[in-house]
Amino acid sequence: MQGQIVQQLGKTVARLFGPARRSDKAVRSRRLSSRRRRGPKTAASETEFLDQLKLIIRQNCGTAQAGRVNIIGLERLKATLGDRWSELRDRVHAVTRSAIQKYLEPNDVWVASGDKFVIAFGSLNFAEAQTKCRMIVRLIETGLLGDACAETISVATAATTLQGEVIFRDLPSLEAMIASAPTFFAGAPRHDRETLSGMSAAIARRAEPSSAHAVAQAEKQAAAPCDSVEAIELADDEPVRGQVVWEPVWDARTRRITIYRARYVDDAARESATKTLAEEDIGKVDFAVRDAVIDQLERRVTETRLAAIALPVRFWTVASWSRRRDYLAGLEKVSPERRQLLLIILSDLPFGVPPTRLVELVAALRPLCRELIVEAGLHGADIPAIAAARAFGVGTDLHSNEVAEQLLIAKLDQFARNAVRAGIANACLAGVHTIPQVAAAIGAGFRYISGGAIGPLEAEISGARPLDIDEIYRTNIEAKGFTWPWLCAQGGRRRARSEPAIASLSRIPSEADARTV
Amino acid sequence: MRKKILIIDDDATVRYTLRRILLSAGYAVLDAPNGKKGVQLFQLEPADLVITDIIMPEQEGIETIIELKSREPQTRIIAISGGGRTGARDLLHMAERLGADAVLHKPFDTAELIKAVKEKLAA
After folding, report:
1. Are strands B76-82 and A243-251 parallel, antiparallel or unpaired?
2. Is B57 in contact with A252 (Cβ distance < 8 A)?
3. In percent, how much of chain B has pLDDT > 70?
4. A88 with A351: CB under 8 angstroms?
5. Under 8 Å CB-to-CB from A333, ≥6 apart: which residues?
6. Do B91 and A409 touch (CB under 8 A)?
7. What integer is the mean pLDDT of A301-324?
8. In whole angstroms, what separates CA A327 from the centre of its chain?
């Protein structure tokens, strides 16, 4: 069956590079789009795959055009991840597939064979294909590791010798290709060499805006290639639309709302609005949220019912040195007293981010706040690395983890247990929207819980307040049309309201500190 | 006539084990994988006693207890939870306050279960 699939793919590729290129373009485009929607095909074996590849190259491309067939290999990444590979393989493949699909055009095709991904570009020349391939790898590396210079993914171009053997030739990095454009691949046709240095911008115009910007910047920064995120600078001309609102965070240990997390919502008040934003816009949002939080710290410091404010900042925003410098400059203006009310949540931590990078970021952010929480994905988060970076807490956001509730319960248990095992006492869960999720979070031992099931987003911070577990259930159960039971409603609420309303966080000096701010 | 017991738990192994224990103790047993289906089943075939887990998808145990008690205040309910979960005790306390007649923290042994079942059915 798989052999047939590979054969079919071979025929499609053959049509691309051979006579079929002159056939009806629309029909071909439709067929290929449909193939891409269905996802990659897998060869039955390495030998079969190589045979098919050989056929494709020899019959349709010829050695002169062999640069059109490129292989992205994950072997080095697999070796880097070691034992964790089996656990993370599916996610790595998903990121790779997504990156490939982002750059492919209707007449390109690709195929997966184990941990290799072969891409055949239908309408690019030698240099264009290779540059585009490198850009795909850059996207994969930044998506997985947050560092485009990790060199954990190999890229090779496939060609055949006169004897018919398939040979692979490793490609240099994108920066090196751009820097050495005039001499790169001396065997390449002259027009290809001339095209190389300028073509990434052309590709960028066809790609998404954020990638376009990244490539344009990459061209400028070929001499300093080791900070890919640096490439994405903020554009000052367009202000951030939407607004910053406040999400109450419930402390399951003290049974109080003690923290308000800043959330950016768009005009339609969608909480997860940032999901659809390009990277540079995410950066802009983070800067705007930072300013809103600083403003709140100034305004709220005189109030009696002090609550801490959680400032989320995405990994991408602070991963590059220059943007981090700008971001931290704003926070440095906050007085040490006001910092006692500030928690920073380093969010959207990419999978597999090097522990040294994490330590670097935590060390940069931590002096500017009361405590720092690192938020990672529910799957495959490297919690021991987060613990080693000395974060106060580790968290995850269900907004970005769409998992069936049954599986979610098990995953939450595992996440909280891993946190405890790593020595982190404060596990945080955001985006909790249903009562089963609340129960699962409490049961698993999460300390800080937030989301629609805890309380709605607030336009203004209403201060620290007691919130008993009964009250959380009551609100949700009454919303379903049931009457809250006779037994505990009165007592529970009365008891709660009689308690003092002051923010408290464990391991944090004292409540008195907060009052004296 | 045999007393009927409804088991609500998302863990198929737990359902199977409880079913075996209760059948061998002479009870008739029904089971459901979550609170929502449990309540639906209860409406079709009312049981003398309900044993419900707390942490379940779709509709968890506390909501289920409240719904069952709202519909049929005389329903006897035993809430079970735990299984290594750190915060499960809090939820069991709450279940007790909200109408569960007894709570059992996992893991519990057969004698403990049978004793609780007999007590609640006799009450």
Report:
1. unpaired
2. no
3. 98
4. yes
5. A294
6. no
7. 83
8. 19
> Which one, of A9, A28, A31, lies nearest residue A20 by Cα?
A28
Q: Note whether A168 and A158 are within 8 A (CB).
A: yes
Residue of A405, A417, A429, A437 to mutate for B, most B C-beta atoms under 10 A: A405
Q: How much is the pLDDT for A348?
A: 84
Which region holds residue A371: left if phi is over 0, alpha if psi is between -120 and 50, else beta? Answer: beta
How far apart, in whole angstroms, are the C-alpha atoms of residue B71 and residue A351? 48
Whether A227 and A321 have beta carbons less than 8 Å apart is answered as yes
Residue A14 neighbours by CB under 8 Å, 6+ apart: A20, A55, A56, A59, A60
Give the whole-angstrom CA distance, residue A35 versus residue A5: 11
Please give the DSSP secondary-structure letter assigned to residue A109: E
Q: What is the mean pLDDT of residues B23-52?
A: 95
**DSSP symbol at A71:** E
- How many C-beta atoms lie closer than 10 Å to residue A9's C-beta? 21
Is A420 within 8 Å of B81 when comparing Cβ atoms? Answer: no
Measured distance CA(A111)–CA(A39) in Å, rounded: 9
Tell me the pTM.
0.64
Mean pLDDT (chain A, rounded): 69
Count of C-beta atoms within a 10 Å radius of residue A455: 21
Interface test with B, best of A433, A442, A495 (most B CBs within 10 A): A442
**Which residue segments constitute the domains of chain B, with CATH numbers given?**
4-122 (3.40.50.2300)
| Cα(A23)–Cα(A337) distance, integer angstroms | 72
CA distance linking residue A290 with residue A312, whole number of Å: 8
Nearest one of A296, A347, A316, A330 to A450, comparing CA atoms: A347
